[in-house]
Specification:
The chain is about 55% helix and about 15% strand. It is built from ten helices and seven strands. The strands form two sheets. It has a five-stranded mixed sheet with strand order 2-4-5-7-6, covered by helices on one side. The longest helix is centred in the N-terminal third of the chain and has 54 residues, at about 85-135. About 15% of the residues are buried. One of its GO terms (biological process) is cellular response to phosphate starvation.
Length: about 325
């Protein structure tokens, strides 16, 4: 920091050196002036100048260090001890910071209000959506029933995705880590997608060597919902395989489909928000949110999601669950 201060005050230092050099030069060319006296004066001047620099460094850097530390940014209680310029800087920073803080506070209140209104709207929409499902179940025309069930499911999944998207930033407050039965979670999600899978001729091959994992069941279900929805959406008549195993002391769950696959150039970007595809860029059904939200929900649970895929050969998503000692980071216990 002292080096930076010297660089900032180099004009002072250069001026002082220039004046001392000029004085010595005059004594050198003027025999009437004693060179020894001038050198003695230069020595004393240099000593006083160094002391002056050190004093100014202590005084000025106290102010600038306060600016550097964010927590002390507005601690100008001793403003009367500041120089006029420092006082101007302190006043300007305080004004702009207070203005910014008010603006942020206002934006946060507005966002909280919009979030609450959205949550309220989603829950209100769920009521007629549930009634609509009951009405669809009473339809006798099976072809019409399948088509309307599929459209109902699309609305249901979009609402669910929107609801969880707003909850993810606060999901750590909603976590409940416990021994979770993989089979019940998987079958619950498969049952939700049943009508869609029947329409497309898609089945499920489930082989769970390990059936229990430590995680949050509700958020795990959401992650699986995004991955299974993605697999069904981009697959034709085939089986989606789900199997669990142990790898390097950790439980893994693989979800493999025989769909259209993912181009190698797209693989690094599939978890980015809004990214759909470069190979199928005209696919208007893709929102680019499912995998992004799955990744966002997996991070607080310490679940790693990996993917292997090739165009025309399908995709395999692997969920690697954390070891037991990693839950200390999740629960804080």
């Amino acid at each position: 920091m002292f080096i930076n201060y010297l660089k900032e005050r180099r004009s002072w230092i250069l001026l002082f050196l220039l004046l001392q050099f000029l004085l010595v030069f005059i004594a050198y060319i003027d025999s009437a002036v004693s060179i020894q006296s001038i050198l003695y004066y230069v020595f004393l001047s240099a000593l006083l100048f160094v002391i002056f620099i050190l004093i100014r460094y202590q005084k000025e850097m106290k102010f600038y260090m306060g600016l550097k530390e964010a927590e002390d940014l507005l601690d100008f209680s001793d403003r009367e001890q500041l120089s006029p310029f420092e006082g101007m800087v302190a006043e300007s920073i305080t004004y702009h910071f207070e203005t910014l803080k008010k603006s942020v506070s206002k934006s946060e209140r507005r966002l909280d209000q919009e979030k609450d209104e959205l949550f309220s709207w989603i829950h209100e929409v769920k009521t007629p959506l549930t009634a609509l499902k009951l009405m669809i179940d009473r339809i006798e025309d099976q072809a019409l029933k399948r088509e309307m069930t599929y459209e109902w499911l699309r609305i249901h999944l979009l609402l669910d995705q929107q609801l969880h998207q707003k909850r993810i930033p606060f999901m750590e407050n909603d976590l409940y880590i416990e021994q979770t039965d993989l089979e019940s979670v998987i079958f619950g999600e498969v049952k939700t997608l049943q009508s869609w899978c029947i329409q497309k001729g898609i089945g499920f091959d489930i082989d769970l060597e390990y059936n229990e994992v430590m995680t949050d069941a509700k958020w795990l279900a959401f992650i699986l919902r995004q991955l299974l929805t993605n697999a069904v959406k981009y697959s034709d008549a085939s089986d989606i395989q789900l199997k669990s195993a142990e790898r390097e002391g950790q439980i893994i769950l693989e979800i493999a489909d025989k769909g259209r696959g993912i181009d190698s150039r797209d693989l690094p970007r599939i978890f980015e928000k809004g990214f759909t595809s470069t190979a199928h860029h005209q696919d208007h059904a893709a929102t680019g949110m499912g995998l992004y939200l799955a990744k966002q929900a997996a991070e607080p649970l310490k679940i790693r999601i990996d993917v292997e895929s090739a165009p025309g050969e399908g995709s395999t998503f692997t969920l690697t669950f954390p070891k037991s000692n990693e839950f200390v980071q999740i629960t804080g216990m």
